[in-house]
Write a structure and sequence with these properties.
Elements lengths: L1 E12 L5 E9 L4 E5 L28 H15 L3 E2 L2 H12 L9 H18 L4 H4 L6 E3 L1 E8 L12 E5 L6 H21 L19 H14 L8 E5 L6 E2 L2 E4 L4 E3 L1 H14 L2 E5 L7 H11 L4 E4 L7 H8 L6 E4 L1 H4 L2 H13 L3 E5 L9 H8 L4 E3 L6 H17 L3 E3 L2
Parallel strand pairs: 5-17, 6-16, 8-12, 12-13, 13-14, 14-15, 15-16
Antiparallel strand pairs: 1-2, 1-4, 2-3, 6-7, 7-8, 9-10, 10-11
């Protein structure tokens, strides 16, 4: 049994200079741990609620003192000095305390860091790493990193419609090599952009955000960088996060910077053309989350060719995931802790996807922190991939460095990739 001795929340700053919630939790033997809730720029309508105060007097409307107060008063008085057999028992109690479907009473940004901090403290109490505490098998698979390299749309201030262009070093033999390959491509891309007199500043997830002539040109310059780094497109593949809901309006998709307004069928053909021309292995959120008519067409055309990844549709929620599994609507799921709001519910979503032979991708959020919990979660649950931004700025690099340390600790007890 684990008894919580103390709980304290505070406002801290995320990677985009906005406040988020940090929780410090202590057990009765003085084992203590801290967890920080990430935040998000692009939010699906079905996600758990991020509670903000929305008062322009502080942080341009984005302060989170109400969520902090919910931890320090409402949650604290109900869980301090209580005993819990496991993190699942605490999570279930937190869900009952909130009682709303989308955690809007306390806010997912209040509940999640409590859940994470409790897992961290329990692991430390047993003298284990987080991935060891959550480990369910006698072996580990380290995930392929999906590494952000070019940003667009809501993650940048440029003229690219697709939100993220990523590279995946599928021929790497370990995490260290994957990160080295990625760093070499990133450096070469900078040189290519400089030679074209294009911007090499980095944005929300710290990939480059140049103004380009089209979404397709972003793929082309990435391939040039891969080849300039002396790799091939067999060794390093490309993944896209389209965030199509962001440019979906009135049943049409507005690729504003290409002067194209497409219906669902035309957008599917646009993706199909990209997949046939370029080494794309994964497309995420390729249609708007409520564009029901176009989904089956995409699956019919591209299901067997690439990973069809849903984020906004599933939002790490087992009820929504099961609903679309029943309709055979995707083969991969993006997993984000704060979309659902507790560690145990997140694990349940991963397990349900695995039961139906779906690939899981553990993901960061666009406004991140130095917390590395998701790196441990990816290893603990043997997920296929991890998506944690660019190899730029500490909030992203912290996760990659954590994976390097985990790989070193496991040594011959783990395999890299599938």
């Amino acid at each position: 049994m684990y008894k919580i001795k103390d709980l304290h929340a505070r406002e801290v700053i995320d990677s985009r200079w906005n406040p988020t919630v940090e929780v410090e939790l202590s057990l009765d033997n003085w084992v203590k741990w801290i967890a920080i809730c990430p935040s998000w720029a692009s939010t699906g309508i079905h996600e758990a609620l991020e509670l903000r105060d929305w008062d322009k007097s502080r942080f341009l409307w984005k302060w989170v003192l109400e969520a902090v107060k919910n931890v320090n008063i409402s949650i604290k008085k109900d869980i301090v000095w209580d005993e819990y057999e496991s993190f699942r028992e605490l999570d279930e109690y937190l869900i009952r305390l909130d009682w709303t479907k989308n955690k809007s009473k306390f806010g997912a940004n209040a509940i999640l860091p409590v859940s994470m901090a409790f897992v961290d403290a329990c692991a430390k109490n047993e003298n284990k790493e987080i991935f060891e505490y959550l480990w369910e098998w006698n072996w580990h698979i380290l995930p392929y990193p999906m590494m952000n390299i070019v940003n667009g749309w809501s993650h940048a201030d440029n003229n690219v419609d697709i939100q993220e262009f990523m590279i995946v070093p599928v021929w790497a033999t370990n995490i260290k090599e994957a990160i080295r390959m990625w760093a070499e491509v990133f450096h070469n891309l900078k040189k290519i952009l400089q030679d074209k007199w294009l911007a090499t500043s980095v944005w929300d997830e710290w990939g480059y955000a140049p103004n380009l002539r089209s979404n397709e040109e972003a793929i082309q310059v990435i391939i040039k960088a891969i080849e300039k780094a002396w790799y091939t497109t067999e060794q390093i593949k490309i993944a896209l996060d389209c965030a199509s809901s962001e440019f979906y309006k009135d049943w049409k998709y507005n690729l504003a910077w290409e002067w194209k307004i497409l219906d669902g069928k035309e957008l599917v053909n646009f993706y199909k053309d990209l997949v046939e021309k370029y080494p794309i292995i994964s497309i995420e959120d390729w249609l708007a989350e409520d564009d029901f008519e176009s989904w089956k067409l995409f699956e019919k055309e591209l299901w067997k060719k690439i990973m069809s990844v849903w984020d906004d549709l599933f939002v790490t929620n087992i009820e929504r995931l099961q609903m679309w599994i029943d309709q055979n609507m995707a083969n991969s799921i993006l997993i984000k802790l704060n979309q659902i709001g507790t560690v145990s519910e997140t694990i349940d979503a991963i397990d349900l996807a695995k039961k139906h032979n779906m690939k899981s991708i553990i993901s960061h959020r666009s406004w991140e922190t130095e917390d590395t919990f998701i790196a441990d979660l990816a290893v603990a649950k043997n997920t296929w991939f991890i998506k944690t931004g660019s190899l730029s700025r500490t909030d992203r690099i912290a996760k990659y460095n954590r994976l390097i340390r985990i790989e070193e600790k496991l040594w011959d007890k783990a395999k890299f990739g599938k």
